[in-house]
Amino acid sequence: MSPGWSAVIKMNAMLETPELPAVFDGVKLAAVAAVLYVIVRCLNLKSPTAPPDLYFQDSGLSRFLLKSCPLLTKEYIPPLIWGKSGHIQTALYGKMGRVRSPHPYGHRKFITMSDGATSTFDLFEPLAEHCVGDDITMVICPGIANHSEKQYIRTFVDYAQKNGYRCAVLNHLGALPNIELTSPRMFTYGCTWEFGAMVNYIKKTYPLTQLVVVGFSLGGNIVCKYLGETQANQEKVLCCVSVCQGYSALRAQETFMQWDQCRRFYNFLMADNMKKIILSHRQALFGDHVKKPQSLEDTDLSRLYTATSLMQIDDNVMRKFHGYNSLKEYYEEESCMRYLHRIYVPLMLVNAADDPLVHESLLTIPKSLSEKRENVMFVLPLHGGHLGFFEGSVLFPEPLTWMDKLVVEYANAICQWERNKSQCSDTEQVEADLE
């Protein structure tokens, strides 16, 4: 090999050798940067914390609420690492429910409905005197396929009891695994029969009590529809709170088939859970010995087995419990949207802006309502997911959520508002008598 060629080889080696580790380090740096970018985006770490957005009309009631409910004007601060992700908040609610959930002691009540169905609810007595000294009962409707034994319900009930509230919690028909159906019917998206029966029981058993109505998710739809169905349903009701509902199933069905925010995936998971519940009661619902309505006679169970969305289940099974001719008719009649304007008691509607189940287009419904009705306040925090609303410093959430505290704080404020109104009326009456 000539000296010139040897010199060229050495020169190339000197030029190339230092570049290899530099290129390798660059690839590692790029990979780390990509991972960090994905983490920041997925955990939404750059999102700010802020007080919830509030939509309401200026009135004496709204001004009183802003003074009496600090949570309405304070920052909601979720856990730093993961709390700004609506998906993680929703997943933790779905899988874990709550942290260190208490076990409140209650009594289970059974009510036989006119069609032979057996409705159940659990009754929990207050553990302290209420702040205004009155007898107040919270009538609570849980989310889809939920009941009093769910951890988020137990946590909320325990907190409400300690604040002086009696609590009655509806167990959705067919949701409790150890309670058999006694008629070919189970809970549906907007059927208010069982909730109404529970409320009537409370009114009859405790004639002096006043009611605070609370609904979570699907339960929010049911309680709002119940109150709006007839003016008589609002008697003895102090206020209503609805958390994380979607307001219109008809408008929501299209968004539930979309993949943005993984709604299609959530739809599949909820449909799978509904299938398991329905099939666990298939003998009571579809057995040959069961005297079932004509609408259920043509139910094709093979379609239920292959259903991958709530809409397919609703069309094949759920709408037929009440004889609806189409899915469109079922969703129109069972949604609370057409009843909201008939509610005259104070009404607080709560949603999270990052709720992956409730599309932002549905939030125009409560916004529009709050612009027209003085009794309505719409509360929209940036974070919270679907029924999450966990609070905490960095990683571990607190046992009690922002949602639990807000509902009780609002109820306390309304009770005080009504007490102040009553005292003012009594004073005016005394003055009038003196004159």
From TrEMBL:
<dbReference type="GO" id="GO:0042562">
    <property type="term" value="F:hormone binding"/>
</dbReference>
<dbReference type="GO" id="GO:0097524">
    <property type="term" value="C:sperm plasma membrane"/>
</dbReference>
<dbReference type="GO" id="GO:0007340">
    <property type="term" value="P:acrosome reaction"/>
</dbReference>
<dbReference type="GO" id="GO:0036126">
    <property type="term" value="C:sperm flagellum"/>
</dbReference>
<dbReference type="GO" id="GO:0009611">
    <property type="term" value="P:response to wounding"/>
</dbReference>
<dbReference type="GO" id="GO:0003707">
    <property type="term" value="F:nuclear steroid receptor activity"/>
</dbReference>
<dbReference type="GO" id="GO:0032570">
    <property type="term" value="P:response to progesterone"/>
</dbReference>
<dbReference type="InterPro" id="IPR050960">
    <property type="entry name" value="AB_hydrolase_4_sf"/>
</dbReference>
<dbReference type="GO" id="GO:0014909">
    <property type="term" value="P:smooth muscle cell migration"/>
</dbReference>
<keyword id="KW-1133">Transmembrane helix</keyword>
<dbReference type="InterPro" id="IPR029058">
    <property type="entry name" value="AB_hydrolase_fold"/>
</dbReference>
<dbReference type="GO" id="GO:0120516">
    <property type="term" value="F:diacylglycerol lipase activity"/>
</dbReference>
<dbReference type="GO" id="GO:0047372">
    <property type="term" value="F:monoacylglycerol lipase activity"/>
</dbReference>
<feature type="domain" description="AB hydrolase-1">
    <location>
        <begin position="137"/>
        <end position="392"/>
    </location>
</feature>
<keyword id="KW-0472">Membrane</keyword>
<dbReference type="InterPro" id="IPR000952">
    <property type="entry name" value="AB_hydrolase_4_CS"/>
</dbReference>
<dbReference type="GO" id="GO:0001669">
    <property type="term" value="C:acrosomal vesicle"/>
</dbReference>
<dbReference type="Pfam" id="PF00561">
    <property type="entry name" value="Abhydrolase_1"/>
</dbReference>
<keyword id="KW-0812">Transmembrane</keyword>
<dbReference type="GO" id="GO:0051793">
    <property type="term" value="P:medium-chain fatty acid catabolic process"/>
</dbReference>
<dbReference type="GO" id="GO:0046464">
    <property type="term" value="P:acylglycerol catabolic process"/>
</dbReference>
<protein>
    <submittedName>
        <fullName>Abhydrolase domain containing 2, acylglycerol lipase</fullName>
    </submittedName>
</protein>
<keyword id="KW-0378">Hydrolase</keyword>
<keyword id="KW-0735">Signal-anchor</keyword>
<feature type="active site" description="Charge relay system">
    <location>
        <position position="386"/>
    </location>
</feature>
<dbReference type="InterPro" id="IPR000073">
    <property type="entry name" value="AB_hydrolase_1"/>
</dbReference>
<comment type="similarity">
    <text>Belongs to the AB hydrolase superfamily. AB hydrolase 4 family.</text>
</comment>
<dbReference type="GO" id="GO:0048240">
    <property type="term" value="P:sperm capacitation"/>
</dbReference>
<dbReference type="GO" id="GO:0008126">
    <property type="term" value="F:acetylesterase activity"/>
</dbReference>
<feature type="active site" description="Charge relay system">
    <location>
        <position position="217"/>
    </location>
</feature>
<keyword id="KW-0719">Serine esterase</keyword>
<dbReference type="GO" id="GO:0051792">
    <property type="term" value="P:medium-chain fatty acid biosynthetic process"/>
</dbReference>
<feature type="active site" description="Charge relay system">
    <location>
        <position position="355"/>
    </location>
</feature>
<dbReference type="GO" id="GO:0014912">
    <property type="term" value="P:negative regulation of smooth muscle cell migration"/>
</dbReference>
<dbReference type="InterPro" id="IPR012020">
    <property type="entry name" value="ABHD4"/>
</dbReference>
